[in-house]
Design a protein that fits this description.
Layout (H helix, E strand, L loop, with lengths): L9 H9 L7 H11 L4 E4 L7 H13 L9 E4 L3 H14 L7 E4 L5 H9 L4 E4 L1 H11 L8 E4 L8 H9 L6 E6 L4 H10 L4 E3 L33 E5 L5 H11 L5 E5 L2 H13 L4 E4 L5 H12 L5 E5 L13 E4 L6 H8 L9 E6 L4 H11 L4 E2 L4 H7 L7 H26 L18 H4 L10 H10 L1
Parallel strand pairs: 1-6, 1-7, 2-4, 2-5, 3-4, 5-6, 8-13, 8-14, 9-11, 9-12, 10-11, 12-13
Length: about 475
């Protein structure tokens, strides 16, 4: 996966290229998504993992979109002066093309010059805690626009009182983030004092030792090995046009009414949003995620398994953590990044003709689904876009009927014939899975009534098609 899926500005992408960072690691991507939630975080990481790629890129991208370059937006407190200087240079390199500057404050700097630089309101401050706490007390400064306060390598902080001095001078809503390689009583006390209901971000499934940060207690599905996807499992995917994912999900649920549906989303925020939308559309649902306490998790899960509700929304939650025997349908609202997670989700699907696993593939999901197809050795069958979605995005809805009829006369006959032929060749369900390393390019029969050869498409439909190619 590349940074293009983060929807970063070209200036930031150029900066990443300058420092030779071509794509985010799984941990960096997880940090990036967690930061988007705007909640306080504790990130289990080492400096070798380069967590700054995850916790700073989003903010630098946001700053690059604004013409204003005054007023401190982020404060990064490093465990030592070497780390502070490294982060300062890194921010300068990433923000170079966007004219984003940072200022570094360490004990070996000229105090008079540092006071002047601090008063000027640098966009990003990188400092050692002792020096910045001293400068703030001397100048009696407060910060009203700081969006992120980050303590990097928190396990190396010896005097947390200095961190508290700085934190109290940040007024207003601010996301506070700790990164740490190890846990300790001092760190836990600092979390209680400075952070509000922090979320743990880690790639580790289990702590390797008592020294590591533990994961939250969530019921896990026991497994000895990753299951293989059954060859007779019905697997589908739907190519989703831009800004149509929720509409596609609702229409698909209406078209495939099954007893139990598990819907996987990439974040708790997305799951909560989908829960509200499903409830608004009179669909019974519960949402699960790792932030829930064990009692609430169990109560909601039992409502689904007992049949009290039909839809279970899993936000940033692996299928391995759902103690579920089987569901009638699994929907990947967000395609998983890892093929093993896809296999675990497929393992939740029960037997029977009505069972299936369906992936909603937007432009942002294509890289992940292609990786999965490459590993499986075939691509799932493409389902046409639901009629309700076609009607909503069609540019012809408001045009006179006469004009629409003429367009159908020119291309409708040949298109409908080829569309019918295409359906006959596909067959049903899994019988015609394609032995491809990646998904075929979208046919968009659902938008135009069938293919019309290689003639280049113009206008709105051509624009949509080009997005997927």
């Amino acid at each position: 996966m590349s940074f293009n899926q983060f929807r970063l500005r070209s200036d930031i992408l150029k900066g990443l290229k300058d420092v030779k960072i071509e794509s985010p690691s799984p941990l960096q991507k997880k940090i990036f998504k967690a930061v988007q939630e705007k909640k306080d975080l504790v990130i289990n990481t080492t400096i070798e993992d380069k967590p700054e790629v995850g916790y700073l890129i989003s903010l630098l991208n946001e700053i690059s979109q604004s013409e204003r370059r005054q007023g401190t937006r982020a404060i990064i407190l490093a465990g030592n002066k070497e780390r502070a200087k490294h982060l300062d240079e890194w921010i300068w390199a990433i923000g170079y093309h966007s004219s984003i500057e940072s200022a570094c404050f360490t004990e070996d700097g000229n105090e008079k010059e540092q006071k002047t630089a601090l008063s000027a309101g640098p966009v990003v401050i990188v400092a050692t805690p002792a020096r910045l706490a001293h400068l703030l007390e001397e100048n009696r400064l407060i910060f009203r626009e700081v969006q992120q306060l980050i303590v990097d390598q928190a396990e190396m902080i010896s005097d947390w009182q200095q961190i508290e001095v700085i934190s109290k001078r940040v007024i207003g809503k601010c996301q506070r983030i700790f990164t740490a390689a190890k846990d300790s009583k001092e760190l836990r006390d600092a979390e209680k004092q400075i952070l509000q209901d922090p979320e743990l971000v880690t790639l580790a499934k289990k702590p390797a030792s008592d020294a590591e940060l533990p994961e939250k207690n969530v019921p896990e599905k026991t497994e000895e090995k990753i299951p293989e996807v059954p060859k007779n499992l019905t697997q589908y995917y739907i190519n989703v046009p831009p800004r149509s994912k929720i509409t596609t999900l609702l229409a698909h649920l209406d078209n495939t009414k099954t007893d139990s549906v598990v819907i996987f989303a990439a974040s708790t925020k997305t799951a909560d949003r989908l829960y509200k939308i499903l409830r608004k559309n009179n669909k019974r649902a519960v949402s699960l995620h790792e932030k829930l306490d064990e009692k609430t998790f169990t109560e909601r899960f039992e409502r689904f398994t007992s049949g009290n509700v039909q839809h279970l929304l899993a936000g940033d939650l692996s299928a391995a953590k759902l103690p579920l025997k089987e569901a009638t349908q699994v929907i990947n609202y967000d395609v998983p990044e890892d093929v093993n997670e896809y296999k675990l989700r497929a393992d939740l699907v029960g037997d029977g003709k009505a069972t299936r696993i369906t992936s909603l593939v937007s432009k942002q999901d294509r890289s992940d689904i292609n990786t999965i197809c490459d590993s499986l050795g075939y691509a799932p069958e493409e389902l046409p876009l639901p009629t309700k979605v076609k009607e909503k995005i069609s540019p012809n809805n408001d045009k006179p009927k006469k004009s629409t009829a003429k367009r159908g006369k020119r291309s409708g006959g040949r298109s409908n014939s080829r569309s019918k032929s295409t359906k006959q060749k596909r067959g049903k369900g899994h019988k015609n899975k394609q032995t491809l390393k990646e998904l075929p390019r979208p046919t968009f029969d659902q938008l135009e009534g069938g293919r019309t050869g290689k003639k280049k498409k113009k206008g709105f439909l051509g624009f949509i098609k080009n997005l997927f190619e």
